[in-house]
Amino acid sequence: MKKQIALAVAAVFITTLFTGFAQAGPGRHSSHHHRPTQPHHPHHKNNILEGVVLGAGALILGTAIAQSLNNPCQTAQVHAPPVSQRPGHWKHHKKKGHWEIQKIWVEPVYETRWNPAHYNARGKWVQGRRQQFLVAKGFWKKERVWVKARGRY
Q1: What torsion do the CA atoms of 21, 27, 33, 38 make, to the nearest 10 degrees?
Q2: Res 153 pLDDT > 60
Q3: Residue 70 near residue 6, CB atoms below 8 Å
Q4: What is the C-alpha separation between 119 and 49, in angstroms, rounded?
Q5: Which DSSP helix (H) or strand (E) runs through 146?
Q6: Which end of the chain has fewer CB atoms surrounding its CB within 10 Å, N or C?
């Protein structure tokens, strides 16, 4: 149902967008100003041609939108069925151990870059050299770790 609504809204939008172009005259910058008493010039065929081209473009765009709505690019994900429907099935297969939260130190990250020759804050000349620059500070991180139970399995 949503696809049909989206298709209808897209068709109405495209139709309203291009009807103004199809009905447009030669434009205000045209060098020929025609009076109603004058016969038609061959330039009027260009306006009809423009309308046909715009209509064809609207048709192509509408078809592309309709096909993208009917054939989505995303593939359906298939989930595996549950292993067992019996209640309490996993009580017999419980792994022995437990989760603990440990604090782990993550080392800071440095980047080695070329530091060109320069004068330092005291006005002394310092030769260029490779130097390590801090990219990310070190920090403590809490992480869940599985601890096996002692004893027989």
Answers
A1: -10
A2: no
A3: no
A4: 72
A5: strand 139-148
A6: N
82's tokens? 């549950």
Question: Residue with structure tokens 């078809």?
Answer: 63
- Between CA 64 and CA 113 the distance in angstroms is 51
* Residue from 44, 1, 9, 3 nearest 24 by CA: 44
Return the structure tokens found at 92.
């017999």
- pLDDT tens profile 44-101: 566 777 888 888 888 888 888 877 777 656 555 666 766 665 665 555 556 788 899 9
- C-alpha gyration radius of the chain: 37
Look up the pTM and report it. 0.29
CA distances from 128 to 114, 116, 125 (A): 7, 4, 10
DSSP state of 133: E
Can you tell me the distance from the alpha carbon of 96 to that of 150, in angstroms, rounded to the nearest whole number?
9
Q: Quick one: DSSP state of residue 28?
A: T
- For 35, phi then psi, to 5°, come to -100, 155
